[in-house]
Structure prediction request, 129 residues.
Amino acid sequence: MAKSFTAEERKILELSPYVKSVGETQLAFEKGYHYQIFSLMEEGAEFKEALDKIGTPISIIGETRAKTIKDRALAFGKKGKVVPPTSVNEPMTESDAVKRIIELEQEHERLKQENEFLKRKRQIDQKYR
Prediction:
């Protein structure tokens, strides 16, 4: 069962800019949350320290939720899927947009190749059954 947050704990969590919403047992994060955790850890901060710095201490969120957060942040970071947060009020510069387009085109090409490989593999598997 998920940890229940007291009214005081909810107020503390809501102060973090990386927390989207806090319910009695639910906690939703903004898009940049895992990026921030990962980048702080990359800079040498301990995981617990990183959580404290961004306003979501383990003492409030609980060990189980903290482990899930750590696993997600590391998985996203290793896959390169951690995207730095961009402010809604702050438009991307042209160079940032070009970089993002290039990244998306590269990812698209990689996914096309993976798809073709899986199609061929399925054909071979069906042929030898």
Notes: The first helix runs from residue 7 to 14.
